[in-house]
Design a protein that fits this description.
Layout lengths: L3 E6 H4 L7 E2 L11 H13 L5 E9 L7 E4 L1 H21 L4 H5 L15 E2 L2 H12 L18 H6 L1 H19 L4 H15 E8 L2 H10 L9 H15 L4 H14 L5 H9 L11 H12 L1 H19 L7 H12 L6 H7 L5 H21 L4 H18 L4 H9 L5 H8 L7 H15 L12 E5 L7 H7 L6 H4 L6 E5 H7 L4 H10 L3 H4 L9 H18 L3
Parallel strand pairs: 2-5, 3-6
Antiparallel strand pairs: 1-6, 3-4, 7-8
InterPro entries: GmrSD_C (IPR011089), GmrSD_N (IPR004919)
């Protein structure tokens, strides 16, 4: 393998006439976080007048007019963003200097497809060209005030670029505001970027070798996730067998889109857990490399595309067509129940809607009983979900009964559940909402009192802040207030208007609000004559028994 290695700066890198540095279509969109942008800015400012090594840029040049940037796009994109902001400042301070920067963005006499000297990947190309690379006086230049009015898909793909442009703009404003001579300071900054930032360009002859280099180099860029590494490995494998790298990259983008914002590494880990009993985050890439070797690129990508669509429904339940399945997925979302995703992934392609609903409901019940209420070891629960997933992955629908049995075996007993429930306090509000709405729907299944959930709030029966009257009622036991006030036995659901009117009044007065409520949990409180710590214990034990009936397996 012949590799050319050259030390260079941005002046030389962008100064070649009629050449366009291209980010291949298969590369991930621009993704630098604020942390990387901040570090780059401070490095540039702190080394003004000197040199600063920016790391390597790996390029593949099958076409000398369009060398492809295999590694380094995050750094180069961010630096060019900053240069464009400097150019725009010249427009206000000294317009004749705009062209000095713009010449490194545009090829003056090149054909239209080579007009700009740097072209990001497809996800970022239009925004980068129209809003950043175009000269300030160009009629085609997009108005930055309108950049956030892009359609939601394009805006999402360019979110980091937009935010980082605005962040660098703010840094630049601060830098110039602190200077006695803003124009001189701006020129000094420009010169340092163009000549003081040093790169090592590694030019390889073909794409397969470029991927080999890329897998071992990622200095200074966004740390590669298991998803990034796997994508790179798949592309390298495709290149070696003369498969279409571009088509495979499009398939990978479809996988990412299918996930509906879900983390790619978490999805890959849950996918592996359908086959492997233990998978740590650091194991994901190594295990998938073995999968590629065993199953081949095409089959693996086909499977990942299907599974990513199911996974996206876990993240965004509204995509599920079947209303009953959708409702259970929404409950799992409310519980933040991700550990069961491996089992649901294995179940989704093999079960009909009715069986999938029941299996997903079992996952909901088990997650609630095992983790939410009894706080048992999550590693053990993951093992149970893996056992169920493995059965479904290997046997399909025929293994449903065995898979259910594997999960049912993990459930805490009724005694353990009730005992744990009786001592619970407020904790996370989404958990309290889930529990009390579940109990309310059980108590009044036909009333549909919670259709408008926006107007229903959690009410503390004994108020969080005790009035003098409440302190008098509690007497010498008032010291127990802090340990009891957030207990579930002291909570109910109440409509917003009634919640405000109840406030921190005495219990006898609050009962007037409870009597007016259509919510059964509030209305049943009118059966109590007084309200103190004894009633809180009594009511929480009653709720525990009801909950055991609702969330029983």
């Amino acid at each position: 393998m012949i590799i050319n290695v050259d030390k260079t700066n941005l002046n030389s890198l962008l100064g070649v006439p009629n050449r366009q540095l291209t980010i291949p279509a298969y590369q991930r969109p621009y993704a630098w976080e604020f942390e990387q942008v901040d570090e780059l800015w401070h490095d540039i400012v702190e080394t003004l007048g000197g040199n600063h090594f920016m790391g390597s840029v790996v390029m593949c040049s099958p076409d000398n007019a369009r060398p492809e940037v295999i590694d380094g796009q995050q750094r180069l994109t961010t630096i060019i963003l900053l240069l464009a902001l400097i150019r725009d400042k010249y427009q206000a301070l000294k317009p004749e200097l705009v062209g000095r920067v713009q010449q490194f963005f545009e090829n003056a006499y090149a054909p239209a497809d080579l007009r700009f000297k740097f072209r990001p990947g497809n996800a970022n190309a239009r925004v980068f060209t129209d809003f950043i690379l175009c000269a300030p006086d160009n009629a085609a230049r997009g108005d930055w005030a309108a950049v956030r009015q892009l359609d939601s898909h394009e805006l999402n793909r360019n979110k980091r670029m937009i935010e980082n442009t605005e962040r660098l703009s703010a840094y630049l404003d601060q830098y110039l505001a602190a200077s006695d001579n803003p124009l001189h300071s701006l020129e000094k900054l420009e010169t340092n970027i163009m000549t003081g930032l040093e790169f090592v360009v590694i030019d390889v002859p073909d794409i397969a070798n470029a991927f080999i280099i890329f897998e071992t180099l990622n200095d200074r860029g966004l740390a590669l996730s298991a998803g990034d590494l796997l994508k790179n490995h798949l592309l390298a494998a495709a290149a070696k067998t003369n498969e279409s790298v571009e088509a495979l990259a499009q398939d990978w983008d479809k996988i990412i889109d299918n996930l509906e914002g879900g983390d790619i590494t978490r999805f890959l880990r849950h996918y592996l857990l359908t086959q492997h009993a233990q998978v740590q985050k650091d194991d994901v890439f190594g295990l998938f490399k073995k999968e590629v070797g065993t199953r081949g690129v095409k089959q693996l990508i086909k499977d990942l595309k299907q599974m990513s669509r199911f996974y996206g429904q876990f993240i965004k339940p509204e995509l599920v067509e079947d209303a009953a399945v959708r409702e259970v997925y929404q409950n799992l979302n409310t519980l933040r129940a991700t550990m069961c995703y491996s089992a649901l992934l294995a179940a989704s392609p093999v079960l009909n809607n009715e069986d999938l609903r029941d299996f997903a409901r079992l996952c909901e019940l088990l997650t609630f009983r095992y983790s939410t209420i009894c706080s048992k070891d999550s590693k053990e629960l993951e093992r149970f979900y893996h056992n169920a997933a493995k059965v479904l992955a290997s046997q399909g629908a025929a293994g449903l009964a065995e898979a259910r049995k594997a999960l049912e075996a993990a459930s805490p007993s009724s005694e353990e559940f009730v005992l744990a429930f009786r001592t619970q306090s407020m904790g996370r509000q989404y958990i309290v909402n889930y529990i009390f709405r579940g109990i309310e729907n059980f108590l009044s299944p036909d009333e549909k009192t919670l259709l408008n959930t926006q107007s229903v709030h959690i009410e503390h029966i004994m108020p969080q802040t005790l009035s003098a009257e409440w302190k008098e009622v509690l007497g010498e036991d008032v010291g127990q207030h802090e340990s009891y006030v957030n207990r579930w036995g002291n909570l109910t659901l109440l409509g917003g208007r009634l919640n405000i009117s109840a406030s921190n009044r005495l219990f006898a007065d609050k009962k007037l609000s409870y009597e007016q409520s259509k919510i059964a949990l509030a209305a049943e409180l009118t059966s109590y004559e007084t309200w103190s710590f004894e009633q809180i214990d009594e009511r929480q034990e009653k709720l525990a028994v009801i909950a055991e009936g609702i969330w029983s397996i």
